[in-house]
Specification:
eleven-stranded mixed β-sheet; elongated; Aminopeptidase; about 30% helix; single chain
Length: about 300
């Protein structure tokens, strides 16, 4: 990306009509008044301030907008309106940087953005806006068969539903599973485990039978967190503490999860995984999950 200056300084919209135009651009230029109103309602529900939306105009007068949509756990997703020309790149980076700074001023601790792995310009814009590379993420999915047998009995491992357990207990083992993890290791230490757990819990409707602590020999050694979206289920997160990895427990957990989801009535399972996490990819593919999409994740944290 050429190292040129933006045409104008980004700023929040100065009028209601300008805000409508900015949101219209942000929603890919296809949203009508009803869609914009629903999006505004979502922003209000998430506690997104009115001045979190930023706009700028290119030298040719084109409107660009950017906004970080907050989620529970003090995290937000950066949205950007599409460019019409590569010459808009400096302005696109400037307005994304302004929206990211506003998000941190409003208390967020992590801003993330997803782009296509093939979108080199989009990645360059985000880096210029202050984000850094985290990982390439693969989306894996599979349809559940009509019959899913239960896992064999395990003399060491039990699953304890944890929705009603104290958050501190769950957060403690969640934090312990991050040690030496191969799944997005760059996220470790950026937020508290309580914030991360809050974010996980808001990612869908937790399935009680598949939202569990992994318990072995009198101690909590891992977590299995699955949420539902209609007839589908998302594996939000699973992990084991270092001492319990490499013992075949992941295979047993997958068997138990698929059986419990089938019993719950889910018809499909979906997850995202770091493309560099070879052990996890091997495990998931062993259980029939196939890659359906890929994205490049970039993140920013307060300075």
């Amino acid at each position: 990306m050429a190292d040129s200056s933006p045409a104008s300084a980004p700023h929040p919209p100065a009028s209601a009509s300008q805000r409508q135009a900015a949101l219209h651009a942000l929603l890919l230029g296809t949203a009508g008044p009803e869609s914009i109103a629903r999006f505004e309602a979502l922003l209000a529900e998430r506690g997104c301030p009115q001045n979190a939306l930023y706009i700028t105009h290119t030298a040719r007068g084109r409107l660009l907008s950017s906004l970080v949509v907050p989620s529970p756990g003090r995290v937000g997703m950066l949205m950007r309106s599409p460019m019409q020309s590569q010459s808009d790149a400096p302005d696109a980076a400037a307005v994304a940087q302004a929206a990211t700074a506003a998000a941190f001023a409003h208390g967020l601790q992590l801003v993330q953005a997803l782009v296509s792995p093939d979108d080199a310009l989009g990645q360059a814009i985000l880096r210029r806006a202050g984000l850094r590379d985290l990982a390439t993420l693969y989306t894996l999915e599979r349809t559940l068969p009509r019959r899913v047998p239960p896992p064999p009995s395990h003399d060491k491992i039990t699953l304890i539903p944890c929705l009603q357990l104290p958050d501190d207990r769950v957060a403690t083992v969640l934090e312990a599973t991050y040690e030496g993890t191969a799944d997005c290791p760059g996220l470790r230490g950026l937020r508290t485990a309580q914030d991360t757990l809050h974010g996980h819990r808001s990612s869908g409707t937790p399935i009680d039978a598949a939202w569990c602590l992994v318990h072995a020999q009198g101690e909590d050694v891992g977590v299995l967190l699955v949420a539902e979206h209609g007839a589908s289920a998302d594996l939000v997160y699973t992990g084991l503490t270092p001492a319990w990895r490499g013992k075949g427990i992941g295979h047993w957990l997958m068997q138990a999860m698929l059986h419990r989801l089938h019993t719950h009535g889910a018809s499909r399972i979906r997850l995202c995984v770091d493309a560099q996490n070879a052990p996890a990819l091997q495990l998931y593919r062993r259980h029939g999950l196939q890659r359906t999409a890929a994205s490049r994740a970039l993140i920013a944290t307060p300075q």
